[in-house]
Amino acid sequence: MQASLNVNRIDYVNIGLLIVSCIMAFIMPFELFLFAYGVLGPLHYLTEISWLHDKNYYSTDKRDVVLLVIISLILTIVTMKNYLGLNDLNVEYKYVNRIIFIAFASSLFFAFIKNNLIKIAGVIITILLSAISDRLILVFSVFLPTLIHVFLFTWLFMFYGALKNRSKPGYVSVVLHMLIPFILFYAFPNQPFVAVTDYGKTAYKEFQGLNNVILNLLNTSHAGDGDIAQQIYHSSIGIAIMRFIAFAYTYHYLNWFSKTKVIKWHEIPKSRSIFIIILWAISIVLYAIDYSLGFKWLFLLSFMHVMVEFPLNYISFVGIFKELTGKGMKHSVE
Length: 334
Known about the structure:
Low-confidence stretches: 329-334
Structural class: mainly alpha
Distance between the termini: 18 Å
Shape: globular
Mean pLDDT: 89
Largest sheet: none
Number of helices: 15
Helix content: over 70%
Radius of gyration: 20 Å
């Protein structure tokens, strides 16, 4: 009974966090994102990786994560090549897409297959099949590490939790989480509330490629015309897109911290807690000095926490299916 009350209380807290995130995304989307990414983000990466480490990364063999870490390192080097003095390193974008596909597809075998020979065969198959991901280049290279991770996977975790706990407020938060993006896009479309600051424009340059991709998808007749910065920071569609991005990232982080007492990610050795706090403090200082510097400093960590979560994503997919079909799920995310 007490456990049920605690879950319901957390679900009510999450409803409140959804509403607060939505309101703040309306008022100042660019600055909200920059705050969430620079302050909440580093602590989220560090604590989630720590928690996943203690859970063996939800893989049948803890060593499986080595491939995901190596892929994260490769992608970091490719992305940051100019800053690392590797300007002559030319990698076609399709190969970045294929590498991410390999990480995501291989994680299916890591999550459910115990036989190492079958796992190796599975990874080889994903490598051979990776060329098919070229047709879905936006899915794997642009959206999977960003909006799919922070919005869709967060929603799936919420849905899985609501199903397991049969929580009415949990179901409300799941529905609200899907409704808010429509509100952010269609309510007050021409009202920016607080205009983006010059600092916000400068700091957000590292991320505006995502906005540009979405602009081209939603507004193909105009996205390629005129000043792209004007469209991202001042057009009604640009502001609507930023509202959604800011909401998705902010709530993603807040949702993680709201579940502390449920998944108990804070129950770790004192030495690790001190290490996490020190790294978090350093990250905040770097972001405060130069936002671009903080982004580069944490790129590997931010990308790696997405990669090593893939096995858990698959377990949640299967868990939702089994809950919906009444079969339950032995492999709980808690």
